Amino acid sequence: MAPRKEVFEGVEWRIRVAADGSSEALVPATGLARKAWLGLKGLISGFALKVRMFVKKAWDVGTNDPRKVIHCIKVGLALAIVSLFYFMRPLYDGVGGNAMWAVMTVVVVFEPTVGATLYKCFNRVLGTFLAGFLAVGVHWVASQSGERVEPFVVGASVFLLASAATFSRLIPSVKSRFDYGALIFILTFSFVAVSGYRVDKLFELAHHRISTIIIGSSLCILVIMLVCPIWSGQELHSLIVRNMDKLADSLDGCVTQYFNQSGEGTNSKEEATDNKLQGYKCVLSSKASEESMANFGRWEPSHGQFNFRHPWKQYLKIGASMRSCAYCIEALNSCIKSENQAAKLIKQHLGSGCLKVSSSSSNVIRELAETVKTMKKKSSTTDLLAEEMKSAVQGLQNDLKTIPHLLNPSAIPGNKTLETACSEATTPTVTLMELVPVVTLASILTEISGRIEALVDAVEELAKLADFGINDDKSKHSKMTDKTVSDAKQQTEGTMKALQRV
Amino acid sequence: MAPRKEVFEGVEWRIRVAADGSSEALVPATGLARKAWLGLKGLISGFALKVRMFVKKAWDVGTNDPRKVIHCIKVGLALAIVSLFYFMRPLYDGVGGNAMWAVMTVVVVFEPTVGATLYKCFNRVLGTFLAGFLAVGVHWVASQSGERVEPFVVGASVFLLASAATFSRLIPSVKSRFDYGALIFILTFSFVAVSGYRVDKLFELAHHRISTIIIGSSLCILVIMLVCPIWSGQELHSLIVRNMDKLADSLDGCVTQYFNQSGEGTNSKEEATDNKLQGYKCVLSSKASEESMANFGRWEPSHGQFNFRHPWKQYLKIGASMRSCAYCIEALNSCIKSENQAAKLIKQHLGSGCLKVSSSSSNVIRELAETVKTMKKKSSTTDLLAEEMKSAVQGLQNDLKTIPHLLNPSAIPGNKTLETACSEATTPTVTLMELVPVVTLASILTEISGRIEALVDAVEELAKLADFGINDDKSKHSKMTDKTVSDAKQQTEGTMKALQRV
């Protein structure tokens, strides 16, 4: 906005001078120079502002995740170390000008996470080896076939192998594991096979290339694993736990907000709540990152709580299960924002049931998050909470069944509470249209609880595959669960009280 | 399966011999050899089966999208052409051993689409230029500072610039446009700056590197644009149109199936319908590919119906809008599969309204798909269909309003049709629980129609930005729309008839 304003100010000023008119003959020259000067000033200040904004954005990137800055320093460090090859004579004498390949290897294989770096190193070494052997073979065949035919043999082999290797990159199972390796295969094969036509010491070239790549790769692996390592697997694990908490917050918050709309809140608190409510959107959009992390995770050795063959693929299933819940929360959100307003009477009638379902459902999700986070099975607690959720759903269904009486109160003889409630409400008989939003909400909540059961199964499958221990730290754990449950209860009660005041 | 069976057969045979007992002394040797032979046979046949399955998968990849095969041939072709550099003496003499850089450029910048290749070429050339200039400057400064200090100046500059460039790759706005360029910058800078310490003819090296990269890039651009070009923009355009059709099919199909569950269908037909119903899942999962296509699309020159600065970003908005519809269809699907069965009476009562909403909504989506596909605005038709959708929604709301009479038929004096319907049904009075699924379905359908209106706005915005023409081919167009509408009407009528028979 601001740079535009500056430019506009310049233009505005120019018009004022032109409108002056008194010194019209002189104005064009002065005006032009001034115009140019002001235009230039505007451009410069606009540019400066852009630069400032860019620097601010960059600063935010760095402060939001300091590990990114550490990654950059690690890249610089690895490159500075590998440059030593060039500067130290004994090393230079060993591999000669080919030391450059070590530098190149560091530049292209160094990735932010250990898994991605290992994947690239392994692929680079494997691709180079395979291509090197094949290329030397092809070169030998070509050199036996006479000088005139040689270029054609080499050219044809490059064409065929490059096409085949490119095709292999398009097959999903190859792509997920060896995409980079296939690229390096094509690169090395073309390099060695074609060089063979001009370079005499082909074996030496291939040997140097392979050894420098191994040196570069080893250096990368050392730096990435020793200096503040970031593990893909650990990242995936944390992402799943974080997303589960976000899902629980969204579900809880959005139902509570609906039944508590009359309750006042400060603006800043509302903003924080809004952020919480939107948390499920992170779940919706994290599929791609989950997949790449799981893909790189399997290259990582045992680290922290995770073994070498930790079932990363199961995390993808948990992620998919969470997304299926998030789709429903999206529908829930839209039904909450719907234009059809529900009758207060119905809101009162179903409020407690809906809040119970949402809070018990989110408790299950939070408990699952805790299970995944600590990697300790607490099946009894999960089962208990899941049972609580099921009974809450059953309660909501029962509440739904009693609604027809509200539609026509005279049909229930002697039902005092309901009759009192009806007489207190402004509209004694509720129309079906006023009922639709809450009924929809209730039935989406029921669906969500069903999907959470699938999520429980997925987490249990993970616990089985990854051999989660039993959490014996009973006192601490039960205290935590109790706290969660009591927090949720308190929240529900508060909302219910607010509801009573409506 | 088969390899396991083979292995098992071998084991079975060994046990039989051991049970024989009569020639026990001789058995171990023969048994071991046979066992080894059979085990080897099993391994080989298992491997052969794996290879066969892999080849089948590869064949499927090729036959499903022949353009992938063409892409592979293009890569081979480009590499074979660039190899000529090495084989033809005049060219080789021009750039010497550095001709290898042209080969490497072709290998790494050749991508399946024109946009991606242009992006990489541009980034590679720009990164190389910038880094080359900087590195030569740094080399000059270093060489002035004395032989002992030189390695440290070079090392420090590599460390600083590599860290800074790596950091820039983590800033989203830089990443989306110059990620590859920053990588190449680091690569070239390290290469030239560090080489400067050992190589005398540094200018020549930088010059050769830049000219070979330009040669390689130009060749790639020529091949990718002249031989069966695949445009990212065109792909994105088709993907959006295809997804719109899928969305319309899913929406239509899933509501029709729900109200037509009693209607029989052959198995193969059901399978085809199921595939159609699942179409919305493609919409849910195509965010990442849409983004990368839009990203590459902006590098592409004018092609086909698209100008250089075609508003590709607006396609992302349309995609997001479609996904928001797809979330609701997901919820719709789950509500259709819900365990609570709706009463037949209610299904009959709301069926026609729901079917009208779904068919008019999908007509709007199909019309939008047609608009995007032909890039011709037919605002009158879209408006007409949108109006039709709105009035269908209004009709459904009215139908909902009359439901309470079904809950208590005696309340409506003289409403013959409804009373007849009630007396025909097995349960004269419907419980609310039997009503919940249909009410939920109706309210999700209403929500979907609201989201489709947002989609209409997004497409209209695209029409404005991309300056869509007016479709003057009236007869053809109205014929098409008429066909769509009449098809939908026929379908609705058929379902309604089936519904009457229930």
Describe the structure.
2 copies of one chain form a homodimer. Chain A is mainly α. The first copy, chain A, folds into 2 domains: 64-224; 231-259 and 273-405 and 430-481, Methane Monooxygenase Hydroxylase, Chain G, domain 1, CATH 1.20.58. In chain A, 81% of the residues lie in helices and 1% in strands. Chain A has helices spanning 2-20, 27-64, 66-87, 89-95, 100-109, 114-144, 150-168, 172-195, 202-226, 232-259, 267-277, 280-284, 287-297, 312-336, 344-374, 379-401, 403-407, 416-424, 432-465, 474-501, and strands at 376-377, 469-470. Chain A has a two-stranded parallel ribbon with strand order 1-2. In chain A, α2 (27-64) packs across α3 (66-87), α3 (66-87) runs antiparallel to α9 and α10 packs parallel to α14. Chain A is elongated, with a radius of gyration of 34 Å. Chain A starts with a helix and ends with a helix. Residues 1-27, 409-428 and 474-480 of chain A have low confidence and may be disordered. The interface between A and B is large, with 89 and 89 residues.
- The topology string of helices and strands of chain A comes to HHHHHHHHHHHHHHHEHHHHEH
Shape of chain A: elongated
How many β-strands of chain A, per DSSP? 2
Name the assembly state.
homodimer
Category from helices, strands and their pairing of chain A: mainly alpha
Number of domains of chain A: 2
* Content of β-strand of chain A: under 5%
Largest interface: A-B, 89 and 89 residues
Distance between the termini of chain A: 45 Å
Strand order within the widest sheet of chain A?
Answer: 1-2
Helix fraction of chain A, binned, reads over 70%
In the predicted model, the low-confidence regions of chain A spanning at least 5 consecutive residues are 1-27, 409-428, 474-480
CATH architecture of the largest domain in chain A: Up-down Bundle
CATH hierarchy class name of the largest domain in chain A: Mainly Alpha
Q: What's the overall average pLDDT of chain A, rounded?
A: 79
The total count of helices of chain A amounts to 20
Within the CATH hierarchy, at the fold level, what is the topology of the largest domain in chain A? Answer: Methane Monooxygenase Hydroxylase, Chain G, domain 1
- Taking Cα atoms only, what radius of gyration of chain A do you get, to the nearest Å? 34 Å
Profile the largest sheet of chain A.
Answer: 2 strands, parallel
GO biological process, one term (chains A, B): monoatomic ion transmembrane transport
Membrane topology (chains A, B): Multi-pass membrane protein
Subcellular location (chains A, B): Membrane
Family (chains A, B): Belongs to the aromatic acid exporter (TC 2.A.85) family.
